[in-house]
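Hello again, I could really use a second opinion on something today. For a while now I've been wondering how a particular protein folds. Please have a think about how the structure follows from the sequence. Here's the protein in full, and shout if anything looks odd to you:

***
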Amino acid sequence: MATRKKRAPAGVAAVDRALAIVQAIASQPDPWSLAKLSVATKLYKSTILRLLGSLENARYVTRLSDGNYTLGPAVFRLGLAYEHAHPLREIVLPVLESLVKNGTESASLHIRHNATSRICIVRVDSNHSTLDRIQAGDILPLDRGAAGRLLAAFDGEESSGARELREGCFALSVGERDPACAGAASPVFGPDGAIKGVLSLSGPRERFTPATVTRMRDLLLAAATAVTQTLGGKFPEVPKNYDLPGKLLDIQPARKSRKSGAA
């Protein structure tokens, strides 16, 4: 298992600003006004207008008849190109569907987004009546949640418990992002031994009993091993036994709702 070295930040200010505009527009489906973009990006309107001109010419942004802005078709082409170049989503989707069919919680694939966050790129909702609230495209923190902590640990960050996470290839989070939710995760690796992403199961905290967590761990490790082998990698040997954290044993039923926050 290889860990990545941290790279010093570098870039061009104008490009960073243009990308900030695209990222803001992509963060929600509704069109954006110039004023709203200025607030979100903390850029002057005059600066945004100049950059929008270039983004419109390249078709990354489209100006609507009412003067608001939305993503342009070039973004769609980039998405398709990414999927062709990185077939991880295509490989993982049937694995996640199989996990859900086996009665687990909602299944997701997360990859690192930047120095402090991760992004969910595939999501399959469970068949339970109550779900945690997360969708493909959502950006979540690295320092909270089972998937985030695993990504950080295998990317070389030495946070508390990182060594244990790397040795066990499994993480459990209970109420880290939302007190009513929990999650479990296991990493997948490429042929170079570097982490490619994390498979995650998440849902309402009350369903994460000792018995279900033990079962989810076995299913996740088997699924992560299968994906790793398909990618040409080798999944490491992990301890057979897993000590459940005390906080899991003390779970109290939470109020049920159709959807709650993600773990």
